[in-house]
């Protein structure tokens, strides 16, 4: 595949990922390569690559005689994902806090505002994930960051499937406390608030 095809397949994977996480594509729904190829005006090889990308993230599976489908919901996954996030995110934050630049800090403040002022579940979800990624941005552990990003996607996907229509606009006191700890460069405090925050996740 050319570099352009790879970029195209990454874009398609990202668009399909959003549809899966937001429920426009349901668990176990068939992912029709021909239709996806037509919609995006690309070859089936490019689509295939996008679907393999989703499979590597745990969002799609190859089903015998059906082809690629959205992965099924796993009722136990949300608990597992919560445990994994709680194991990784506070540690990433601990390493990130001492290295955050003024620019990164400004970005965290902005995303925190976006999060608190979100008026729809989708806006909140987007801002919330950006907040959780922004605070760990300076941990200097790219593999950890990739892993955490994927855990958050899987977590949000399961959460949306299992707990729809529960979201209400609200300010998040944990996020405010994390922001305050970061401002004080108190990595240990930020770590402990993040741990508590992720323990409270539904
Ligand atoms: Zn949060």
UniProtKB/TrEMBL annotation:
Segments forming a coiled coil:
none
Write down the Gene3D superfamilies for this protein, in alphabetical order.
GntR ligand-binding domain-like, Winged helix-like DNA-binding domain superfamily/Winged helix DNA-binding domain
Q: Which UniProt keywords apply?
A: DNA-binding, Transcription, Transcription regulation
Q: What is this protein called?
A: HTH-type transcriptional regulator McbR
Q: Name one GO molecular function term.
A: DNA-binding transcription factor activity
Q: Any idea where the HTH gntR-type domain is?
A: 6-73
InterPro entries the record matches: GntR_C, TF_FadR/GntR_C, Tscrpt_reg_HTH_GntR, WH-like_DNA-bd_sf, WH_DNA-bd_sf
Pfam families associated with the record: FCD, GntR
Please give the superkingdom of this protein's source.
Answer: Bacteria
């Amino acid at each position: 595949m050319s570099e352009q095809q790879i970029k195209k397949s990454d874009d398609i994977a990202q668009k399909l990922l959003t549809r899966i996480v937001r429920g426009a594509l349901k668990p176990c729904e068939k992912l029709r390569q021909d239709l996806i190829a037509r919609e995006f005006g690309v070859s089936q090889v490019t689509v295939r690559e996008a679907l393999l990308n989703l499979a590597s993230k745990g969002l799609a599976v190859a089903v015998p005689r059906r082809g690629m489908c959205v992965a099924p919901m796993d009722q136990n996954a949300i608990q597992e994902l919560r445990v994994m996030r709680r194991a990784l995110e506070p540690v990433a934050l601990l390493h990130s806090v001492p290295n955050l630049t003024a620019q990164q800090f400004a970005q965290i403040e902005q995303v925190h505002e976006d999060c608190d002022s979100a008026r729809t579940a989708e806006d909140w979800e987007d801002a919330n994930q950006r907040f959780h990624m922004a605070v760990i941005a300076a941990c200097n552990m790219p593999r950890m960051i990739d892993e955490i990003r994927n855990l958050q996607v899987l977590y949000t996907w399961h959460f949306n499937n299992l707990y729809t229509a529960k979201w209400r606009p609200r300010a998040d006191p944990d996020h405010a406390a994390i922001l305050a700890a970061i401002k004080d460069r108190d990595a240990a405090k930020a770590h402990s608030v993040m741990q508590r925050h992720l323990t409270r996740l539904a």
